[in-house]
Design goal:
Strand order of the largest sheet: 2-1-4-3
GO cellular component, one term: cytoplasm
Keywords: Apoptosis
Number of helices: 11
Radius of gyration: 25 Å
Pfam family, one: CIDE-N
Number of strands: 10
Number of domains: 3
Order of helices and strands: EEHEHEHHHHHHEEHEHEHEE
Helix content: 25-40%
Strand content: 5-15%
InterPro entries: CIDE-N_dom, DFF40, DFF40_C, His-Me_finger_sf
Protein name: CIDE-N domain-containing protein
Oligomer: single chain
Largest sheet: 4 strands, mixed
């Protein structure tokens, strides 16, 4: 059978991401990681019952399982969730009217469900979740050499994804572009690069505390749902990569999903816009927003990242060019909003 990723923890709640195909496989690897005797351990699920291969087959990827010696005991998650719900109820009764009314509108079962799904966050003390430096939370920085700040790591992860769209898009378009229109395409990407530099490649999207962050102030990201939905249908699609190294690893499986699709729709639109410019100024900011900003990007759980055709999501032709800013063909050589040596003129 196929190996899958699971998060295994020991009695101290120290967690390791372990890939395995069976209980035997997981236990063997876990014992090596946690330095436990192989002949005296069992694998338990969150309610304390023992996991067998049949149960394991129904577990989703990254399910948290516990490895215990026969002499060890742990306090299981349901009890912790119950305590957490009680704390939340107490908190809501003490807070101001605005907060209380917001929760009053929510379905009680949905609230409990959300708390249950986020129960694994209870395993990490809040001061570690809120910590940012390597000195405060060294375990979070495992395998991250020379990194000293969670926020800087998350900023780099965001910019890496956004810059990836830039390089991939440029590469994809240049493959089948005529020499005639190539200077214009290069100009478009020079402008994209300028916007990205001005906005730090939208690195703020993953940085908690930033105004445009896609997460809460403590770093909790909530899935924004499939491309054509206003929100996620599952209340359990939440993750806080600031909590632990394992959470950070799992966060790597989440996707930034283009509503108007990059390869199927945006790139062909840019190609056509360049080829048909005939002296008109390409609306670079419009295409920039489609490719690189949250105006067209949703952060989604892997389950909500559908590979299907995004019907009715189009790059609207009426936004392709800037109105009344046509470049002259004379000596004045007016450009689209800023001076440049390369023009998208009529071939």
């Amino acid at each position: 059978s196929n190996s899958r990723p699971f998060v295994l923890q020991n009695v101290q709640r120290l967690r390791k991401l372990i890939i395995g195909a069976s209980v035997e496989d997981l236990l063997t690897k876990a014992c090596a990681e946690f330095k436990l005797p192989r002949n005296d351990v069992q694998l338990l699920c969150e309610d304390g019952s023992e996991v067998d291969d049949e149960y394991l087959a129904f577990c989703s990827d990254y399910t948290v399982l516990t490895v215990l010696k026969s002499s060890e005991e742990v306090k299981y998650v349901p009890q912790k969730v119950k305590e957490h719900v009680e704390q939340m109820q107490k908190l809501l009764s003490q807070r101001d009217v605005e907060v209380s009314s917001a929760f009053a509108e929510s379905d009680r079962e949905k609230l409990v469900s959300i708390l249950q799904k986020s129960a694994q966050q209870l395993e990490v003390p809040k001061h570690l979740v809120l910590a940012d430096s390597r000195d405060e939370h060294p375990d979070w920085f495992r395998d991250l050499k020379n990194e000293t700040s969670k926020k800087k790591v998350m900023r780099r992860k965001a910019t890496s994804r956004i810059k990836g769209y830039y390089h991939k898009s440029k590469s994809d378009l240049l493959k089948n572009f005529s020499d005639t229109h190539r200077p214009c395409l290069n100009y478009v990407f020079q402008e994209f690069s300028r916007y990205l530099k001005e906005n730090d490649a939208n690195g703020v999207y993953f940085v908690r505390g930033e105004r445009d962050a896609l997460c809460t102030d403590v770093g909790l990201f909530t899935c924004e749902g499939v491309f054509d939905a206003s929100e996620c249908a599952s209340s359990g699609h939440m993750i806080n990569p600031y909590v632990s190294r394992e959470h950070l690893t799992v966060f790597g499986t989440w996707n930034l999903d283009h509503g108007v699709e990059r390869s199927r729709t945006i790139l062909p639109a840019i190609k056509t816009a360049v080829e048909e410019a005939r002296g008109r100024c390409i609306n670079i900011k419009y295409f920039y927003k489609l490719l690189f900003t949250k105006e067209n990007l949703k952060l989604v759980h892997p389950v909500c990242h559908l590979k299907t055709l995004h019907k009715n999501f189009v790059a609207d032709r009426k936004h392709w060019y800037l109105v009344n800013e046509t470049m002259s063909h004379g000596d004045s050589k007016k450009t689209c909003g800023r001076k440049a040596r390369v023009y998208c003129t009529e071939a």
